[in-house]
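## retry 2 of 3
previous attempt timed out at serialization; input unchanged, resubmitting
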Amino acid sequence: MTSVKPLLLALSIGLGALTSAPIALAEAPMLKTQAPGWHRLLLGDFEITALSDGTVKLPVTKLLHDKPEKISAALKRSFLGDEVDTSVNAYLINTGSKLVLVDTGAAGLFGPTLGNVLTNLKSAGYKPEQVDAIVITHMHPDHVGGLMNGDQRAFPNATLHIDKKDTDYWLNKANMDAAPEGNKGFFQGAMASVNPCVAAGRLVNFSGDTELVPGIKAKATYGHTPGHSIVEVESKGQKMQLWGDLMHVAAVQFDNPTVTIGFDSDTKAARAQREKAFADAARNGHLVAATHLSFPGVGRLVKKADGKGYNFLPLNYQGLK
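## retry succeeded, writing output
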């Protein structure tokens, strides 16, 4: 029988050489990208997919209407600085018979860090031509920009649903001409995104509270813009409200819903709508989602024990099989 001692000796010498020699590792560059930005949940018989358009840095201490030191203190409690990476979210609802997209992100209208809704919709397993209807909560650039993909409509088979008060305001050239110079871009973005849908005969206006398809309703929440609407989704007794821009900065406005933001057309009305929606969500326990809550932006509100402000409870992650 052959002795194993020579083999063991050779092995030990080889291992020693390996451990004593410098190990060369390939340098791995940082990728600086996220996983595809979509998150799926079930609501009764409906499937809802949150789609990330990306994030954008906002100087919220300058935009929010409160004492800057109070805003900074609230942000610091959430480990945030004065500039906040702010999510821009859209929501895709599959009712089983209709595929409905609520808001479309910014495409190229709001800087290079946004514009990912179309890519993430495809990553989530859908095709843009499958979308039957698009509901726009309001016509700011980060909600309507994604209607276009270059010079083509991004969702060629979809009807577009917007409250008439918003189209009357944002598609009116006289309003744009009268707006401060810094606000004219909001009108230009709205016109560039929505007018091709108008020309194609795809715009369907609604006015106030309206059922758009079975189980999906628009509800008037005028204030942030003249025609701002939230979208209420309900299936088998389960309800979820898509808030659009009823709120922007969770670290500040859940504690103090009275704080408004410079993007509001009517700050008093926007504040009243936010306070009403917060109280309703806490009282009834239904799910809420908002464009600028940290992605995927879905959860529930609970009134704080002292009665001042709310806690936001993000939806628990769940597998769907």
